[in-house]
Design a protein that fits this description.
With 344 residues, the chain is an alpha/beta fold. The protein has two domains: 4-129 and 309-339, Quinone Oxidoreductase, Chain A, domain 1; 131-285, Rossmann fold. 28% of the residues lie in helices and 27% in strands. Strands 3, 5, 6, 7, 8, 15 and 16 form a seven-stranded mixed beta sheet that branches. A six-stranded parallel beta sheet has the order 11-10-9-12-13-14, sandwiched between helices. A three-stranded antiparallel beta sheet has the order 2-1-4, with no helix packed on it. Strand 13 (231-239), helix 7 (257-278) and strand 14 (282-285) form a beta-alpha-beta unit. The model has no long low-confidence stretch (mean pLDDT 97). Bound molecules: NADP nicotinamide-adenine-dinucleotide phosphate. Residues 44-46, 132, 135, 154-155, 157-161, 178-180, 182-183, 198, 216-218, 240-241, 286-288, 330-333 line the site of NADP nicotinamide-adenine-dinucleotide phosphate.
Length: 344
C-alpha cells in the first residue's frame, strides 16, 4: 500500500487560495480509532471559518491541515479495543470537534463518533447526514420539543434547517420556518406547516409568538430586533448561528482559557443576553457535540424512510474549489457532497 494519499487541505489560515489538493501521509490510527476509506465528505459553513482562522484562538491547527468535518466511508482497519465495527462496514461520522480530517482518501476517527451508514441511500450522499442532523436533533432536545409544540426554525432551507423541520415534525410539533421564495419548496417538502419569507416579512410583525425557537439563521441584529420580539416571555431560543453565549466553548477550552473567553463572549452578547433576561427568555448558543449513538438513531430514521438528506450539489474531489465556492455563496438548499473515493 502507498504511504501517501490525496487530501483537500489548508496550507495556512486564509482565503480560498489556501485550500489545495495535496499528497499527504496516510494517517496512523490510535487505540479506539477506526481507519476509514472515505467515500465522500460534506461541506458546512464551519469549514470556511476553520480555514479563515475565525476560531484559531480556541482551536488552533497546524498545517497542512486536512479540511472537512463529516464523511462517509468503509472501515479498513480497527484500532486497539474497537468492537463497535468490523472491517468492511460502511460508516458515517461527524469528526472530533477539534480535528477536521474528513476530506482525504483515508482518515482515522474515534469509533464511538461513527455510526453504521444508512443502507437505503448511496454512501456518498450519506456524508451529508452527520453534522447537520445531529446538530438539529441536539437543539430540539435542548428545546424539549414534543408533540403539540409550536416551534419556530429560522434558516429552514439550509443544511441544519431542513433536518430540524423534519425532526420536529417527527416529534409531532407544528413548525413555522423562515425561507426565501427559493427555499420555500424545500422547506415545504421537509414538512414545514408555515413559511415566513424572511426577505419580505419580519417575524417581529407576525401576530403570533413562539416559546421554542431554533435559530439557524443568526445575525446579532436579527436576533435582537426580529427573533426576540417574536418570542413569548419565558420562552427559549437555542441558536447555532447568532451571538455565542458564555459556556458554549467550555468543552474545547483548557481551564485557564474558560474565564477569559467567556468574558469576551459575554461582552459581545450582552445586549442580546440582557434583552432576553428582562423578559425571562433563555438565549443559549449551542456548539454541537459529535455523538455516534445519536447519529445511529438518525441513520435509523433514514432507513425507515422518516428522514431525508437533501443534497444541494455534488462535486468530485478535483472540483473542490467549486464545492467551497458553493458553500461560500450561502445559498445552499441542503448539503454539498464532495466525492472522495466514491461509492464502493
Ligand atoms: N453551533 C453549531 O454547532 C453549528 C452547527 C451547524 C451549523 N451551524 C451554523 O448554523 C448556520 C446554518 O448552517 P447550515 O449548514 O444550515 O447553513 P447553510 O446550509 O449554508 O444555509 C444556507 C441557507 O440559509 C438560508 N438563509 C440565509 N440567510 C437567511 C436568513 N436570514 N433567514 C432565513 N434563511 C436564510 C439560505 O436561503 P436563501 O438562499 O433562500 O436565502 C440558504 O438556503 C450557519 O451559520 C452555521 O455556521 C452551527
Amino acid at each position: 500500500m502507498a504511504s501517501t494519499m490525496k487530501a483537500i487541505a489548508y496550507s495556512a489560515y486564509g482565503g480560498p487560495e489556501v485550500t489545495k489538493l495535496m499528497e499527504l501521509p496516510l494517517p496512523t490510527p490510535r487505540a479506539g480509532d477506526v481507519t476509514v476509506r472515505v467515500a465522500a465528505g460534506s461541506l458546512n459553513p464551519v469549514d470556511k471559518h476553520q480555514r479563515n482562522g475565525t476560531f484559531k484562538a480556541l482551536i488552533p491547527y497546524s498545517f497542512p491541515a486536512i479540511g472537512g468535518n463529516e464523511f462517509s466511508g468503509v472501515v479498513t482497519a480497527l484500532g486497539e479495543g474497537v468492537d463497535r465495527f468490523a472491517v468492511g462496514d460502511s460508516v458515517v461520522c461527524r469528526t472530533e470537534k477539534t480535528a477536521m480530517r474528513a476530506f482525504a482518501e483515508y482518515t482515522t476517527m474515534p469509533a464511538h463518533l461513527c455510526a453504521k451508514a444508512p443502507t437505503t441511500m448511496p454512501l456518498t450522499d450519506a456524508a451529508g447526514l452527520p453534522l447537520a442532523s445531529v446538530t438539529a436533533e441536539q437543539c430540539l432536545d435542548l428545546l424539549e420539543v414534543k408533540a403539540g409544540d409550536r416551534v419556530l426554525v429560522t434558516g429552514g432551507a439550509g443544511g441544519v434547517g431542513l433536518f430540524a423541520i423534519q425532526l420536529a415534525k417527527l416529534r409531532g410539533a407544528h413548525v413555522t420556518t423562515t425561507a426565501s421564495d427559493a427555499g420555500k419548496p424545500f422547506v415545504e417538502k421537509a414538512g414545514a406547516d408555515e413559511v415566513v419569507n424572511y426577505k419580505t416579512t419580519k417575524l417581529a410583525d407576525m401576530p403570533q409568538k413562539w416559546t421554542k425557537v431554533l435559530d439557524a439563521a443568526g445575525g446579532d441584529d436579527a436576533i435582537l430586533n426580529d427573533v426576540l420580539p417574536a418570542v413569548e416571555d419565558g420562552g427559549k431560543i437555542i441558536s447555532i448561528a447568532g451571538p455565542q453565549s458564555p459556556g458554549c466553548f467550555d468543552g474545547v477550552l483548557s481551564w485557564w482559557m474558560k474565564p477569559v473567553i467567556n468574558l469576551v463572549i459575554w461582552a459581545r452578547a450582552r445586549t442580546v443576553l440582557n434583552a432576553a433576561a428582562t423578559r425571562n427568555i433563555t438565549y443559549q448558543w449551542w456548539f454541537m457535540v459529535p455523538n455516534g449513538d445519536q447519529l445511529a438513531k438518525l441513520v435509523g430514521y433514514v432507513d425507515e424512510g422518516k428522514l431525508v438528506v437533501n443534497i444541494d450539489s455534488r462535486f468530485k474531489m478535483a472540483e473542490f474549489k467549486d464545492a467551497y465556492e458553493r458553500l461560500e455563496s450561502g445559498r445552499c438548499k441542503g448539503k454539498i457532497v464532495l466525492e472522495i473515493g466514491g461509492n464502493p
